[in-house]
Amino acid sequence: MDGRSVKGHGVILGAGVMGAQIAAHLANAGWRATLLDIVPEGAGSSAKERNDFAAKGVDKALKARPAAFYVPEYKDRIALGNLEDDLKAVKGADWVLEVVIEKPDVKRKIHAAIDKLAGPETVVTTNTSGLSISEMSADCSESYRKRFFGSHFFNPPRYLPLLELIPTPETDPEQILAFKQFAEAVLGKRVVLAKDTPGFIANRLGVFSMQHAINTTIKLGLTIEEADFLTGPLIGHPKSGTFRLSDLVGLDVGLLVGNNLLQRLPQNRWTEILTSGPNIQQQLVERGALGEKSGAGYYRKEADRSISSLDLNTLEYRPQVKARIASVSDIRKLPLQERLRALVNLEDNAGKYTWETMRDTICYAADIAEEIADDIPSIDNGIKWGYAWEVGPFQIWDILGVKETAARIEKEGLPVPPLVESLLKGGHSSFYHRAEAKTVYADLHNPSKTVAAPEAPEFMVLADLKDAGKTIKENKDASLIDLGDGVRLLEFHTEPMNILGPGVIQMMEWGREDTEKNGVAMVIGNQGEHFSAGFNVGLILMSIQNEDWDEVAAGVAMLQKAVTNLKRSKIPVVCATHGYTLGGGCETMLHCAAVQACAESYIGLPEVGIGVIPAGGGTTEMTLRAMKSVAKNADPFPALMQAFEAIGMVKIATSAPEAVKIGWLRSSDGITLGKDRVIYEAKQRALAMAHASYHPAQPESIMALGQDGLAKFDAGLYIMMKGGYISEHDRVIGHELASVMCAGNLVHPQIVTEDYLLQIEREAFVRLCATPKTYARIKHFIETNKPLRN
Fold first, then answer.
1. Range 82-111 average pLDDT
2. With 0-12 CB in 10 A as exposed, 13-18 as middle and 19+ as buried, what is 383?
3. H helices present in 663-787, as ranges
4. Over the Cα atoms of the chain, what is R_g?
5. Would you place residue 373 in the very low, low, confident or very high pLDDT band (cuts 50, 70, 90)?
6. Smallest Cα–Cα separation from 226: which of 122, 298, 178, 275?
């Protein structure tokens, strides 16, 4: 398999949840997929009947939430079949993935059948959460075994970046390398190599951590709300914590995986810890409480949509109670490293809980490290990419202090892992450190030595660039970073969610000007959770409360000027988006010469929801694009209506491909499937544009429809209001939006400039801010983070 290949054909055997969603993700990546499953019992001779299980798999993937497909029409890239009639499809496939039932004899039999049909270049992998990979291919030819290995995806495969590759002793290393390159470049995955042991890396650690947290919750008498609070974002884990995550995974699935691990692992102090508490999970499964899919697990959704929680003492449900732990109220505001150090030193139950669960997890990781992986970063990355932890177990050792933590463990009468003892005896005080502007880590097999992290330029880490002294200029809200080759990166780092404000805009202007003088191109991006959730609405609310309309207009004008300067810059500016790209963040993106969007970019202009219109150039830019798309002598109103609906109906794209459909992205913009690669690919796009004699955009002019177009919009808004679809104030907002898009103060259609539209965009925004109902909407949104319809 060519790791650089973008198009290809994959055959997936097994149309269950994982098989169908992996097929969906192959389709997302632009590949053709063939999805096969068994023939239903009693099926007739028609292909429709015989392919019914595969069809149902795709249908479930279409209905999955969160969505498995970037856009629904990608389902057409998947062909349906069955294992009796269509197994021959593996002959011409680039990749065959087996995802059938987790039974070794079934998997072994199907691989023997694939061996007889697959071409000599076809790569074959199995998706399993912990079965022996080597055993599956025992009946296959030597050639087959060389190109066969495990490929463990995490559910849902579209969203979780981890892919564990598990070679057997007979797997050709070149096949693994090529597939790794393919998985990273085409599927957007982050790959770790795991050994063929029970649970591999992520599940081996993740299942231990979750089960130990549950048992410790019971032992210390905590509620499940308290445990989820203590095992969530407070310690750098997802907000689902432990018990909520169990419900999401499915208690039956978690129980199956856990039991499989316990059956295959040797009995030692770690398995004793896992089996020490009462098996509440087993009791819940026996009574049908399987988690979210059954409506009840550790939490239960009631008929009135309220949430009840399980009392771990009585196993009865009670009203959910928000966790309130006084000792962490100040700690939770600290940066993660300081937070962890403070938490494990608390003397109350919260401190005991955090210390015990964290201590045993990092000791377990150190004890089994050589068994499950060949290097330390694979273990940290596996749990980070598969379970969304911010830091892995060996990074936690470093944060808490290896020497100090080992001494505390020893003082408690517990064994210090031999790996940790070897590290300290070898004269090292941490598993990771920086040397000559590079990250080095302890050699897993000889901790007295260190290994330099391999070069991976396609996975740029902005924190590493900063550590290496590549920051050109910064303020508290944004930084300008040297990416090399004359390309600079403008990074936002504001809380929350990289919202825009004067500090960001100031750096945007300075960064553009400096790059025009001293560089060749600029990228706008960051590696926070989201690109930007928009402009700081709190600043606008303060000006409204003071009735300082000049200040409102000045704030809007400041953003308009900055993004317009990006658009007309002498150097190409490429926006690298990911996550929320909303409001002012979207407007920044719209004004860049090109966009390299992570596929998981959620793009849109939601301003109408808080009672205003996009006024950082967003309304004007969408108007310009709509009018320029109209063919000569064609009616421009339908194109303008499409842009109006995108803004007025608050259409937020749930993927970059959907953003192209809506119009937020152009068909010429790029899409990257992996968040961690998007800045690198944006840099390459920027360099290509710079080296192709880039010509800056010039101020534009378009034909504005004037009052004729505005009358059409107003008529539609009136009908919607009378039909109860929108409120009177929604109609007012819609009128202001349409008046900008049509330059509605004009009696007749005529040519207007871009700057003229920007002016009336500002004026419309200020008028709306002066209305009591818009003030109420903004205030309500800030207080509740929810829109108000009034």
1. 94
2. buried
3. 678-690, 706-722, 728-742, 754-769, 772-784
4. 28
5. very high
6. 298
Nearest Cα to 733, choosing from 717, 747, 744, 720?
Answer: 717
Report the C-alpha gap between 746 and 213 in whole angstroms. Answer: 67
SS3 661: helix
Every domain of the chain with CATH number 1.10.1040.50 lies at 202-450
CATH topology assigned to domain 202-450? N-(1-d-carboxylethyl)-l-norvaline Dehydrogenase; domain 2 (1.10.1040)
Count CB atoms within 10 A of the CB of residue 324. 10
Q: By the 8 A CB rule, do 621 and 639 touch? A: no
CATH code 3.90.226.10 region(s) in the chain = 457-604+653-686
**Residues contacting 275, CB < 8 A, separation 6+:** 262
Beta bridge partners of 98: 13, 126
The CA distance from 595 to 245, in Å, is 35
Where do you find CATH 3.40.50.720 in the chain?
Answer: 9-193
Lay out the sheet containing 9-13: strands in order across: 78-82, 32-37, 9-13, 95-98, 123-126, 148-153, 162-167, 190-193
State how far the Cα of 588 lies from the Cα of 499, in Å rounded to an integer. Answer: 12
pLDDT tens track for 728-782:
999 999 999 999 999 988 999 999 999 999 999 999 999 999 999 999 999 999 9
Which of helix, strand or coil describes residue 196? coil
Place of tokens 């849902």: 156
Q: Say how far apart CA 762 and CA 540 lie, in whole Å.
A: 13
- How far is 224 from 366, CA to CA, in rounded Å? 28
CB 423 within 8 A of CB 431: yes
Structure-token match 């409001």, residue found:
583
**Cα separation of 434 and 200, whole Å?**
29
In single-letter form, the type of residue at position 754 comes to E
Which H or E run includes 97?
strand 95-98
Q: What angle do CA 291, 103, 281 make, to 5 degrees?
A: 25
Residue 272 has pLDDT above 50, yes or no: yes
H-run or E-run covering 421 = helix 418-425
Across the beta sheet with 438-443, what order do the strands follow? 432-435, 438-443, 446-452
Amino acid at residue number 151? S
**Residue 358 is encoded by which pair of tokens?**
């964290």
Q: Give me the amino acid identity at 39.
A: V
Backbone phi, psi, residue 540, to 5°: -65, -45
Pick one of 3.20.20.70, 3.40.1190.20, 3.40.50.1010, 3.90.226.10 as the CATH number of 457-604+653-686.
Answer: 3.90.226.10
* pLDDT reported for residue 497: 95
Check residue 332 and report its DSSP letter. Answer: G
Side chain identity at 12, as an amino acid letter? I
Fold of 9-193: Rossmann fold (3.40.50)
Distance CA 753, CA 736 (A): 19
Check: CB of residue 17 under 8 Å from CB of residue 155.
Answer: yes
- pTM flag (> 0.85): yes
**Residue 355: per-residue pLDDT:** 98
